[in-house]
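Practice problem: Putative pre-16S rRNA nuclease
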Amino acid sequence: MQTVLGFDFGLKRIGVAVGNSVIRQAQPLTTIAAATNDAKFAEIALLISEWRPAICVVGLPRHPDGSEHEMSARCRRFANQLHGRFNVDIVLVDERYSSAVIPQKRGELIDAQAAAIILQQYFDEHA
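Answer key — structure tokens:
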């Protein structure tokens, strides 16, 4: 059994979800809302240490036509930083429309739910 962490990267918050290779069901885990990049990665380091994921899945935003935009590049950079800092395999998942299926709520829960949708999409595509 391998643990998989999913990330919904945002400039203000990062949603995190968890799942495993046996059950293949993603669950919202937490939202990281630290003020600085170093603080965000310190929180991620704690999660990596606790969950010891074999893979980290990062949502890659795109325009509806599939082309990339500014946030796509930022998400790729975040994914590269995860790989470089924690030596974990990274998979990018197209996250177009992932937030469209989440009931619109206020607060940080939506970020963790978005991460769970991204991670579930990974599980469904790699069945």
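Discussion: The helical segments are 37-51, 70-86, 109-125. Students who identified this feature from the tokens alone can consider the problem solved.
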